[in-house]
Amino acid sequence: MNTFPPILSEAELVLSEGALRVRRLSEQKLAVWDVLAAIDPKESILFLGGPSSRLSYLALAWDEVASAEVLVRQPEPPRGAESLGLKFSLGTLFLHSYDAWDERNAAQGARLRAFEIRRALVWDHSAGYVYLCEEDAWEACSTKLSGLLDKPLQQSLTSVTPSWTSTLDNAGYCDKVRRVIEDIKEGRYYQLNFLRYWRSSAPISREHWLKRMKAVSGPYGAWLDLPDLGVISFSPERFVSLTWEGAAAYLQTEPIKGTRAVVQDPHENAKALADLATHPKDAAELNMIIDLMRNDLQRVSEPRSVQVVDPGSVQSFQQVHHRIATIRSRLRSSVDWGEIWKALCPGGSITGAPKKEVQKAILELEGRARGYLMGHIFFLDRYTGLVDSSILIRTAQRCADHTWEYAAGSGLTIQSQVEEERAEVLAKARVILDES
Length: 436
Known about the structure:
17-stranded antiparallel β-sheet, alpha+beta, Anthranilate synthase
């Protein structure tokens, strides 16, 4: 059994301004999945990344802070870490629930959570390096992974396959889809994202979740495992990112609409890709969300700065193909994160249009708060000034009795066909249901 290399013997890279200290090591000596497997089951996990991610991020020491402290902050420009070749170093991980700004449902939903990370491992898979980033005060943090870098690597994982049950049978799901289509015909709304939920019959081990993350996670995967919090996300969907050009901050959002399952037969897979690229229903669905996101961005952006960079391109992931658009804008000055998140959250791709009316209808149809399902994870870097985030699709959350629930949905429009929507939702549920 191998042990971790002496990471602290690597040369230090220290910023001339700020408290950030960085040590660099070859990724070959410190593999991300080995590190995750070595974490003691009694210790907490804050992890971002997946097999197809350019970056992976594991917090080693952090303090939880009141979410209100983060909401009043404004985006901060770079403080020099970009000179070290880093995209992310240390900053705030913010867990944003779907229901946070919904007055009807916020009390029943999940609360906002904020974690100030003071020590972390950052893998840059494209460059082949892993960075140990830390601030001087990290040893005083309330939560730490004790002695992780000195523990032996794990060579294999074993786990029990969990059993999942849908909380809505096929007939009930199809009836509700028909109800949505009738609402659209009557002019109540244009598009609605309707979820179907699954519940596990028992608690699920970390070993199982780690195996699933290695097998199926999208580039915006995340794993948060604390005594009072369990969220594991295999998400392929970026929500909004923030970058800087001089003193100007730019927002970019990338909504997903349209899904086809990845098929092993190359000919059939090519047909699925072509169908997704040309299907009028998927194009209409995405166009409506583009308009919605343009409107949301305009609420916090400079006038006339919102631009559709890409009206929709097909991208492939491990289990599904998606159609993804890109919209960009210049952020207004003196806007805080509370204003930004209230304008943009929850994302258009997991609500519908028009957003406020659709959120009312979703609550009527689903009869429950979504909590962190279809919410967001944001990472706000203190030193590079960069921000990135995901939509928590392909996500499971831990319940009070330590069982888990998972949700998958689709965007329903007037062109929706009931059986096609059911097939799309089941394709998205393969994350948990297909253990091959």
